[in-house]
Automatic annotation (TrEMBL):
Domain of life: Archaea
Any one biological process term the GO annotation gives: L-valine transmembrane transport
Localization, UniProt: Cell membrane
Family listed: Belongs to the AzlC family.
Protein name: AzlC family protein
Membrane topology: Multi-pass membrane protein
Keyword set, alphabetical order: Cell membrane, Membrane, Transmembrane, Transmembrane helix, Transport
Length: 211
């Protein structure tokens, strides 16, 4: 099942790599040392949390609290997943349970399948960070390449929505509306944070009530 997970996770890896390169570039631009950027990907493995960490590094309190708040949605992921399949190694499974791995986990019914998804996603994320750290000067100097990497993060989430179920699309639209309204009101950062926490919770509640 691990091999099946690896094969199924190839699209995730292809999307993760350029986003991780972008993180490597961002981390270096924000003043992190090369080994600190790579360690962040090795030990944290959470895209939005790592970007928040890199941009808030000058504010230790915010750099600690904001990534934790951003990842609260993973509590919901874990609850949903544990009801679907038997979890024998919760710490291993939880570490690899990113947004995209969770979305793809519905294609399998075995914990080892999820390990396969997480393994190839993790490999792409770490290797992409290394490329971003070591090749930063070349990438930034290439305008076309640099612009494409900036769009990689939102493009990854958009692509994952295309083949997914209607409830996932509803959750994305609901979260997007929350973020958009608060952005217009001048609370962009708070809007993104609130959308990430509230949207999965509200959508899962509605789904249980209506189905």
């Amino acid at each position: 099942m691990i091999k099946k997970g690896i094969v199924a996770g190839i699209p995730i890896a292809l999307g993760y790599f350029p986003v991780a390169v972008t993180f490597g570039l961002t981390a270096m631009a924000m003043g992190l040392k090369d080994y600190e950027a790579v360690l962040a990907s090795l030990l944290i493995f959470a895209g939005s949390a790592q970007f928040a960490l890199a941009t808030l590094i000058d504010s230790p309190i915010n750099a600690t609290i904001v990534p934790i708040l951003l990842n609260l949605r993973h509590l919901i992921y874990g609850c949903i997943l544990s009801k679907r399949i038997k979890i024998s190694k919760p710490f291993i499974t939880a570490f690899g349970l990113t947004d995209e791995v969770f979305a793809m986990s519905f294609k399998g019914d075995n914990e080892r399948f999820i390990w396969g998804l997480a393994l190839i996603a993790y490999s792409a994320w770490v290797s992409g960070t290394v490329v971003g750290v070591l090749g930063g000067t070349f990438i930034v100097s290439n305008e076309a390449l640099h612009r494409s990497l900036v769009f990689a993060f939102p493009a990854l989430f958009f692509i994952l929505l295309i083949p997914n179920r209607s409830w996932n699309l509803i959750s994305a639209i609901f979260g997007g509306l929350i973020a958009l309204i608060l952005h217009i009101l001048g609370y962009t950062s708070f809007g993104i944070l609130l959308a990430g926490i509230v949207s999965p919770f509200v959508t899962s509640t509605l789904r249980r009530c209506l189905e």
